Amino acid sequence: MLRYALIYVFTLGAMFTLETTPAVQNLTVTSWTGLLAQVSVYLMHLIDARVVAVGFQIKSMDSGYSVAIRAGCNGVEASMVLAAAILAFPSAWGSKLLGIVSGVIVIQAANLLRIVTLFYIGQWGNSALTVAHLYIWPSLIILDVLIIFLMWIRWQAKHTRLA
Amino acid sequence: MSNPLNALTLRTLLWAPVCFAVWYFLAASHTHWAGVIVKHLVDATFPVHLPMQEHGSNLLFLMQLSSTQLGYPSIQGTFTGTIRLDVLLHGCGVPLFVALMLGTPSAAGKAWRIPAGLVMLLSYELLAIYGSVILNGLKMLHLIGADTRILFGLHWNAQAFLLAESLGKLVLPTFLAIVLWAVFNQRFIEANFIKPSST
Q1: Per the count of CB atoms within 10 A, which of A92, A152, B41, B66 is most buried?
Q2: Which of A150, A6, A72 minimizes the C-alpha distance to B172?
C-alpha cells in the first residue's frame, strides 16, 4: 500500500508539473479546451441549434449568454488522477493502457455532459451555476474517476487470474 | 445487491444529495468558524495587517500596503486590494466523503472513521484557505509590479502559482475525500476489487 501510494504521488506530481509548463499548456491543453467547446456545441445542436462556439466560449445566439471553458474545466486533471492511479497499480502494461484509454474516454464524456448542463443551468440562474459548477460537478467527476478505477482493478484482477 | 460496485455507486448517489444539502445549509456557520480560525493564522504569521470580512460563503481579506512597504518610498499613498476566497470551494470534498462512507456496504468502524475523516478534511480546508491568501497576495503584488518578497520572502513564479491553484482548488478538495475513503476502506476494496472471490 505504501509503495503504491508513493509511486502514485510521484507519478501524479510529475504529470501536474508537466501539465502546467507553458509549452504543454499551449500545445495540448489549450487546443483540447477549444476542441471541447466545438464538440459540446455539436452535441447541443441535437436539441438547440442557436448555440455557437467561439474559441473557448459557448454562446447562445438567442439570449447572448456565454460561458468560457477554462483550464481546469477540460477534464484533463481528472484524467491525470485516473492515469496516475492506473500506472502506479501493479499490472500488465496492456491492461494499464486499456484502462487509461477507456477511462479517459468515459471521463471526457462525463465532462461534456457537465459542460452542456452548466451552460443551461447558467442561463437559469447564477447561484445555481455556482453550486453546480464549483461544488457538485467536481465531486461527480472525481466519483466517476473512483468508479472507473475500481471497475478496472476488478477487471484486471479477474483477467490476470484467467490468463 | 450482489455487485459491490453497483451497491457502492447507488448508495453513494442516494446519500450525496442529502449530504450536499446539509453541508450547503450549514455553509454560513461553517464559513464563520473557518474565517475565525484562518484570521488567527493570518494575524499570527502575516507580515502585513489583513482585515477580514464575511460575505455569504466568501471571506474577503483587505490588503493594505503603504508605498514604503511596496518599495516606492518616493510616492505617498496606500495600495488597497481585496482577496476574495470561497470557503466552500476548498471544502466540497466533505459531503462527498460522508456520502461515500455512508454508501459503503461494509459498516465496520463508520462511527469513528467519519468524524476522523471530517477532522482531516476540515484541517485541509483551513490550510488551503490560508495558502490561498498567500498565493493571491503574491499574485496581487506581482500584478502591481511590487516586490513579492515582502510576503515571506517568496518570489513570483507563474507556473508554481498555476500548479498550486489547480491542485489546491480544483483537485485536492475532492481528491482527498476519495483518498481518505480508500484508506478507511482498504479491506472492502481488497476483498471486493483487488482479490474478488466471485468469478
Answers
A1: A152
A2: A72
Which of A141, A144, A145, A78 shows the shortest CA–CA distance to B167?
A78
Cα B89 to Cα A6: distance, rounded to the nearest angstrom:
27
Q: Judge contact between A13 and A87, C-beta under 8 A.
A: no
From chain A, the residues in CB contact with B100 under 8 A are: 143, 146
Quick: pLDDT tens for B65-90.
777 777 777 777 788 889 999 999 99
CA separation, residue A14 to residues A84, A140, B150, B163 (Å): 10, 25, 30, 11
Select the residue from B87, B94, B96 to test the A interface by mutation, using most A Cβ atoms within 10 A. B96
pLDDT over 70 percentage in chain B? 97
Query: A89: nearest CA in chain B?
Result: B194
Picking from B5, B24, B186, the nearest residue to A151 by CB comes out as B5
Chain A positions with Cβ closer than 8 Å to B = 1, 16-17, 19-22, 25, 71-72, 77, 81, 131, 134-136, 138-139, 141-143, 145-147, 150-151, 153-154, 157-158
Q: What average pLDDT score do residues B106-118 get?
A: 86
CA distance B185 to B109: 9
Q: What residue of B is the nearest CA neighbor of A12?
A: B167
Helix ranges (H only) for A70-92 are 76-88
Q: What is the pTM of this model?
A: 0.89
Tens digits of residue pLDDT in A98-136:
999 999 999 999 999 999 999 999 998 888 999 999 999
The Cα of A90 is separated from the nearest Cα of chain B by a number of Å equal to 11
